[in-house]
Amino acid sequence: MTGRLHGVVAMDGPSGTGKSTVSRRLAAACGAAYLDTGAMYRALTLAVLRSGVEANDPKAEHVALAAVALLESGTDPDAPEIRLDGEDVEPEIRGPEVTAAVSAVSAVPAVRAALVERQQQLIAGATATHGGIVVEGRDIGSVVAPDAPLKVYLTASEEVRAARRGAQDRKAGRTGEPGAVLADVRRRDRLDSTRRTSPLHAAADALVLDTDELTVDDVLAELLRLVQDRGLVS
Ligand code: DC
Fold first, then answer.
1. Which stretches in the chain have pLDDT values below 50?
2. The domain containing residue 37 runs over which residues?
3. Domain for residue 57, yes or no?
């Protein structure tokens, strides 16, 4: 029997590592809140695309910053809603247009600063009401919640991550053509890990978990063991 989580669990790593699925399941299993920070970057990217401004255009920064005020992020692991000006933008934020443009928008320092501040407020609110929260992203352990008592960095080879992403896309009714998915995984990895502000990397004190050979259930079992061992549930 798992108790309730106290404090923040930071879940970082590239896409296709199973991070979202295990983060949500961990939060649900421990009665904790859940925050998907990638969804926030995606929603701002959608606002940019809808405005007709190219993601690489300097004007994108202003559109994205204006959209921060319109953004609402739910923290319920069973139904994490993401709203832009009141409109539920899931699943549009998972589509290929947003996926292709999100790295450019999330590389803009002012956009990151605004979202990090918003994420820290959400984390403070959720820990006050729920006691604990599982937060997933790319810079949670390094920037957003550097004092988190548990930081996990999930990895997997490019091929395994592309295969998982492709299967997810096909399940959601998108093409998920293997060559294109692998190329997109490589492109996003390169952009996310070479940007100047908060590039994707494991925090020095993060526990790195290679998921190539692990199922979602295996990873979840390992995370549950870690939160128990560290005295984060009671
Ligand atoms: O986790 P995801 O694939 O939904 O994230 C979408 C993009 O947002 C990803 O390419 C990198 C960016 N991102 C980020 O820069 N920092 C975060 N904390 C979360 C996501």
1. none
2. 7-224
3. yes
Joined tokens for residue 204? 């020095």
Ligand 1 midpoint to CA 38 (Å)? 4
Predicted confidence at residue 1, as pLDDT, reads 53
Cis, peptide link before residue 146, omega less than 30° from 0: no
* Strand order through the sheet with 207-210: 33-36, 132-137, 7-12, 150-155, 207-210
**Residue list, ligand 1 pocket, CB within 6 Å:** 15, 37-38, 41-42, 102-103, 106, 137-139, 188, 192
CA 103 to centroid of ligand 1, rounded, Å = 7
pTM greater than the 0.90 cutoff: yes
Strand partners, 132: 7
The pLDDT score that the predictor gives to residue 176 is 79
Domain contains 232: no
Let me know: does 114 contact 138? Beta carbons within 8 Å.
no
Per the structure, the count of domains in the chain is: 1
**CATH code of residue 17:** 3.40.50.300
Q: In whole angstroms, how far apart are CA 176 and each of 171, 185, 202?
A: 9, 12, 28
Burial of 172 (0-12, 13-18, 19+ CB in 10 A): exposed
Q: Which atom of ligand 1 is nearest to the CA of 93?
A: 4
In a domain, 131, yes or no: yes
